[in-house]
Amino acid sequence: MKQGKLWLEIDKWNTEFLYQSSLPAGVGSNDIGLDRGQLGATRIVRFERSGPKILLVQENLDFRAITNDASERRAVHDSFAESVLWGFTVAAEENSSVLVDATDFFLRDAHGVTNALRRAKQGSFRLEGSRSAVYLVNTKNFPLNTEVEATLTFVGDEPGRVGSAGDARSAVNHRARASFVRAIAAAGLRAACLRSARQFFLEFRILIMRRR
């Protein structure tokens, strides 16, 4: 990060995982609807490689074939377009792992803040790259998930009341988070929660019976 860049190592190809955007810090005005802790879109995505390009592809799960027939599933899959959310360029590689510069991906308005400000009639804002950076304090890597947080600054010529919540009338600051979570981890978490709930009720029931 000495050069202000965030590098992402990719070694899992065509493997589904969850991509979740959120706002760990809001803009300071509840009326606008950009509150602290707000979740953005939840997407099921995968990395695909085509030569020197790495594509982050979002599956189209609005249309699915509920069948065991592989041909039917392929027909539905090919009939409805997927979305390419971002394209990376390979900077280095070793065996099946590649390294890409993911700075621009994480320092973007993935949560749709500019659109939300426009809908709330707060003026026309744009992302100011010179005042945006990765927030390293809350950027961490774990075995089953990666969390990247960024401080983003939006500037506008005719801001509304939201400008007063920032450091200047023409600037709005907030922090955005991008979470990459292995799909198996999400399923395992749900199973663990169910097991914990069953164990809690079992222990609670035993405790009540003993008290009787």
Descriptive notes:
With 212 residues, the chain is of the alpha+beta class. It has one domain. 24% of the residues lie in helices and 38% in strands. Strands 1, 2, 3, 4, 5, 6, 7, 8, 9, 10 and 11 form an eleven-stranded antiparallel beta sheet that branches. The longest helix has 29 residues. The radius of gyration is 22 Å and the shape is globular. The N and C termini lie far apart (62 Å). The C terminus is likely disordered.
Strand content: 35-45%
Number of strands: 11
Give the topology string: H per helix, E per strand: EEEEHEEHHEEEEEH
Overall geometry: globular
- Count up the domains: 1
Largest β-sheet summary = 11 strands, antiparallel
Task: Work out the helix count.
Answer: 4
| Alpha-beta classification | alpha+beta
